[in-house]
UniProtKB/TrEMBL annotation:
Subcellular location: Membrane
Keywords: Ligase, Membrane, Transmembrane, Transmembrane helix
Main localization of the protein described in the UniProt heading: membrane
Annotated protein name in UniProt: O-antigen ligase
InterPro entries referenced in this protein's UniProt entry, alphabetically: O-antigen_ligase-rel_domated (IPR007016), WaaL-like (IPR051533)
Stretches assigned to the O-antigen ligase-related domain: 204-339
Presence of the UniProt keyword Metal-binding in the record: no
Membrane topology: Multi-pass membrane protein
UniProt GO cellular component terms: membrane
Transmembrane segments: 12-30, 36-52, 59-83, 103-124, 131-151, 171-192, 204-234, 240-258, 287-306, 326-345, 357-374, 380-397
Length: 432
């Protein structure tokens, strides 16, 4: 079998992994489904090793991945430095982490995410882009499940899931909303640049309706922002049919009404609670800034900094701000990694802006990064794997040419008048 045939097998295996993750990986805690996804990732990575080309990856991603792995691995070395009694595990006093097992799980999750990233990066750009087809199948599975849930007006348990399905196949409606939002830039891209406009239009309409039905204020608010940004960033073509304009206006009206209704249902309790979480987490960061408390140990460490008046019936398992939580767990090295990644993301987005598809990937990544300010969506395998694939698409080494703007002219073909697109002459030098 040739290298192209084997690469196609790797692409299909990776696509099926993304589909499985979107259905089985909607929980944030370790369970049997998560273990199966880890095992499947190892199999896909083993298949990809036969075609893995280090030159296509580049030195930058490799160095960043090595430092990220080291930042977690160093907490698992017997360096000592904590001392005192045990909190959350029997290893305190020997390791830098409060809980050796939880940090080891984080390291394993990081490794499988990097595997997905590198496998996608070594595929050809066309094959990497075709992974979106598998993601659309995953989208429809989640949308249909979400529609059933919202019609039944409650959570439900189904089949192999050991947790109630709160939105699609996710336990958390906020994370389900993030999953939906990621597809908005790509659907607008399809409406403007591809021939499958009917599929994109119908999918976009269903996505918006389910997004409004989901119980996520952040998701609904971000949805409005993502739609506007995607249209402004991708709508380069001047010729838009009147039917498309009318459909867009109708959809915008429906969305604004739903957005207003959602605002009316929201209370100030959520914002106050998130601010309280952030304040307490900042106290923990100041106390353990250099080493962190250990990745995956937030729930144990957060309790050490809670004031008596902040104690509630339910315990706090996450900071609802993933940047603060990661810095609290990983210390100064985690802060450096976040800053380096954000700088690389912004730089690559500017460099790749000439390619509308990469532009869509950049906007989709931005959705996850923004939502991480008020939640922790990437801690699910479903969104973690998508995040890895989207970054591979954005940082893919293949250079693309910006699609030229086009206009149409009316011509007569066989006695029928049709609009035929023609491209503007562009004598500027283009990269190939």
């Amino acid at each position: 079998m040739g290298s192209d045939g084997w690469s196609r097998i790797v692409k299909n295996a990776l696509g099926l992994l993304l589909l499985a993750a979107a259905i089985l990986g909607g929980n944030t805690v370790s369970n049997l489904n998560g273990d199966l996804l880890i095992l499947a990732t190892l199999v896909v990575f083993a298949l990809a090793l036969l075609t893995l080309d280090p030159h296509r990856i580049g030195i930058g991603p490799v160095v960043f991945a090595a430092v990220a792995i080291a930042s977690v691995g160093i907490q698992l070395l017997p360096l000592g430095g904590w001392g005192g009694e045990t909190i959350g595990g029997a290893f305190r006093g020997t390791f830098l982490t409060l809980n050796f097992v939880e940090t080891a799980r984080v390291l394993l999750s990081l490794l499988v995410a990097l595997m997905v990233f590198f496998v996608t990066l070594t595929l050809s750009y066309s094959k990497a882009r075709s992974l979106l087809s598998f993601m659309y199948v995953a989208l429809y599975c989640n949308v249909l499940m979400g529609a059933v849930q919202f019609a039944s007006r409650g959570t439900m348990r189904a089949g192999p899931f050991d947790y109630p399905l709160g939105g699609g196949f996710f336990i958390n409606p906020n994370h389900f909303s993030t999953f939906l939002l990621v597809f908005i830039p790509f659907l607008i891209f399809s409406l403007l640049y591809e021939t499958r406009r009917i599929f994109a239009g119908v999918t976009f309409g269903l996505l918006v309706l389910v997004l409004l039905a989901a119980s996520s204020m952040a998701g609904v608010g971000l949805g409005l922002v993502v739609m506007l940004v995607s249209v402004l960033a991708l709508a380069e073509r001047r010729h838009v049919s009147s039917y498309a304009v009318l459909a867009a206006l109708a959809l915008a009206a429906i969305y604004l009404v739903g957005f207003q209704n959602r605002l009316g249902l929201e209370t100030g309790v959520s914002q106050h609670t998130r601010l309280q979480f952030a304040t307490t987490t900042l106290e923990g960061i100041r106390a353990y800034f250099w080493t962190g408390v250990g990745y995956g140990t937030f729930a144990d460490a957060y309790a050490m900094f809670m004031r008596p008046e902040d104690i509630q019936q339910a315990y706090v398992n996450h900071a609802h701000n993933d940047y603060l939580e990661v810095i609290f767990e990983g210390g100064v090295l985690a802060l450096v990694l976040i800053v380096v990644y954000l700088a690389a993301y912004l730089r690559q987005s500017i460099i790749s802006w000439r390619d509308p598809f990469k532009r869509s990937a950049s906007i989709a990544i931005g959705v996850m990064l923004l939502h991480s300010l008020v939640d922790y969506p990437i801690r699910t395998f479903a969104l973690l794997f998508m995040f890895a694939v989207l970054n591979a698409l954005l940082f893919h080494p293949d250079r693309r040419v910006k699609l030229p703007r086009s206009r149409t002219m009316e011509v007569s073909i066989g006695g029928r008048k049709v609009d035929v697109p023609f491209e503007r002459a562009d004598h500027r030098r283009r990269s190939v």
